[in-house]
Write a structure and sequence with these properties.
Helices cover 45% and strands 19% of the residues. With 314 residues, the chain is α+β, with helices and mostly antiparallel strands. It has two domains: 112 residues, Butyryl-CoA Dehydrogenase, subunit A, domain 2; 148 residues, Up-down Bundle (Butyryl-CoA Dehydrogenase, subunit A, domain 3). α2 packs parallel to α4. The longest helix is centred in the middle third of the chain and has 37 residues. The radius of gyration is 27 Å and the shape is flat.
């Protein structure tokens, strides 16, 4: 990475990630700028980064979504301490790409401010909206790679007198995986198309939440089946399926857990739907017949229509 400028986005803290209300890393104003105190956890790429983008609480008198601020903090700044590097379960600690950081009275000038004070979440959501779609895009490719490996395996492996591909349970698995991946791919494409067309992540929040949730579901399912159909080789370190399986679970946590995204999607859908206006649902057949008769009363009185017909009582 010599010659490259690498940055790191630090938001998660040891005591909380999905709930920013429990964040304690804070920056207090001084006459020269700010002083940063606290810790950040699982800061991606920090070990190589030239600078950190740190979210810190700057105003406790208001809601966290208006009381947090972003700072650009060069990694060589006095007081920036690397407690340790860490990584995914399949990585050795010395190779971990994430860091546990401590900010020990880090002195920052006004020039270290990123955007406006209190605007951290507005800035973060701009990055996170696109990042969640990028996760989904990468998942499409990785899941396809796992699916291709499955197809090759079942066509090549013989057991109990025939190929795995000839077993009906395997054929059922193949069909289900293909349909799941095809639906996921199309939803990701539609979401990206909406982002390009509307040019506003807020208008596509529900779609982004959906592809984010499905990223975990599709990847975990595909990697799990790849492991199973490859047998002992599938669980060995000679294949990447175990790493892919763990990455699938990581997708359910990175940039917000799946539960949060499902709740957000459900609330958005429910806000768009008004309650029924009458005693019975809008799809109620007898009630619809009454409304239809009223709407088309003039047409029903034309010659040729059955005289005396009345709709059934609602």
């Amino acid at each position: 990475m010599d010659g490259d400028i690498v940055s790191c986005f630090s938001m998660t803290e040891p005591q909380g990630g999905a709930d920013p209300n429990v964040f304690t890393c804070r920056a207090d104003p001084t006459t020269e700028g700010w002083v940063l105190r606290g810790e950040k956890w699982f800061a991606s790429n920090a070990r190589w980064a030239e600078f950190l983008i740190v979210m810190a609480v700057t105003d406790t008198s208001t809601a966290i979504h208006h009381g947090a601020t972003m700072f650009i903090v060069p990694t060589h700044t006095p007081g920036v301490e690397f407690i340790r590097n860490t990584g995914m379960a399949f990585e050795q600690p010395e190779h971990g790409a994430h860091a546990y950081l401590h900010f020990n009275e880090v002195q920052l000038s006004h020039d270290h401010l990123l955007g406006q004070a209190g605007a951290a979440f507005k800035i973060a959501q701009t990055r996170l909206g696109g990042g969640r779609v990028h996760h989904a895009m990468r998942t499409v490719g990785l899941a396809q790679r796992a699916f291709d490996a499955i197809l090759e395996r079942v066509q090549s492996r013989h057991t109990q007198g025939s190929r795995l591909a000839d077993k009906q349970l395997v054929q059922d698995t193949i069909a289900e995986l293909w349909m799941q991946l095809a639906q996921f791919r199309l939803l990701v494409l539609q979401t990206a198309w909406k982002i390009d067309r509307l040019n506003d992540y807020k208008l596509v929040r529900g779609d982004i939440a959906a592809v984010k949730v499905l990223s975990e579901r599709v990847m975990v399912e595909m990697a799990s089946k790849a492991i199973h159909l490859h047998g002992a080789l599938g669980v060995s370190n000679e294949m990447l399926f175990g790493e892919w399986l763990l990455w699938g679970h990581a997708l359910g946590l990175a940039d917000g857990p799946s539960e949060v995204h499902k709740l957000m999607l459900a609330k958005q859908l429910l806000r768009a739907q008004s309650p029924g206006a009458g005693l019975f649902p809008s799809q109620h057949i007898p009630s619809g017949a009454v409304l239809g008769a009223a709407k088309y009363a003039a047409a029903l009185r034309l010659p040729g229509h059955r005289r005396g017909w009345v709709p059934p009582a609602a």
